[in-house]
Amino acid sequence: MRLLVVAEGKLRDRGLREVADDYLRRIRRHVRCDELELRSSEGFGRVFAAGAVIVALDVGGRSVSSRSFSELLVTWASRGRGTIVFLVGGAAGLPSGVLKRAHERLSLSSMTLPHRLARVLLLEQLYRAISIQRREPYARGD
User: Fold this and answer.
1) Per-residue model confidence (pLDDT) at position 86
2) Is 63 helix (H, G, I), strand (E, B) or coil?
3) What is the pLDDT of residue 142?
4) Measured at the alpha carbon of residue 11, what is the angle toward residues 139 and 70, in degrees to the nearest 5?
5) What is the CATH number of domain 2-139?
6) Dihedral-angle region of residue 82 (phi above 0 means left; psi in -120 to 50 means alpha; beta otherwise)
7) With DSSP H G I counted as helix, E B as strand and the rest as coil, what are the percentages for the chain, rounded to 5?
């Protein structure tokens, strides 16, 4: 399994960057995980690689539990080349053309989240999903 988080804009807030980097380090102990920061939403079109499962974060997307998300990761990783790309839009969200091309649309919350926080929450949930799969203590109660 290879994970790629593609986000519009840089994560400039030092505290959020530290938290994001911590989760990236934790994830990378188990699977390959990269982060790509785009200058604008126009760059999203370039990430639709052959064989990758594209998951767009969208408030109107499917809402799942952490355990279900863990199971979805396994399912998505079994498709194609095992690469899963997560798209995180900027303040205006993802362009409609990008949402239409995505294989899946996933909502982190029915509440509106700042895009910076959504990226950190996604990374935490990716780590939690991997912990659930590995039956590690971090995933207690899931």
Assistant:
1) 97
2) strand
3) 59
4) 25
5) 3.40.1280.10
6) left
7) 45, 25, 30
Looking at the whole model, is its pTM more than 0.85?
A: yes
Grouping H, G, I as helix, E, B as strand and the rest as coil, residue 131 is helix
> 94, 98, 109, 92: which is closest to 47 by C-alpha?
98
Sorted by where each begins, the domain ranges of the chain are 2-139
Torsion over CA of 24, 28, 33 and 37, rounded to 10 degrees?
Answer: 30
Residue 81, amino acid: R
Percentage of residues in the chain having pLDDT higher than 70: 97
Closest CA to 44 of 28, 31, 58, 32: 58
What is the pLDDT confidence band of residue 137, given thresholds at 50, 70 and 90?
confident
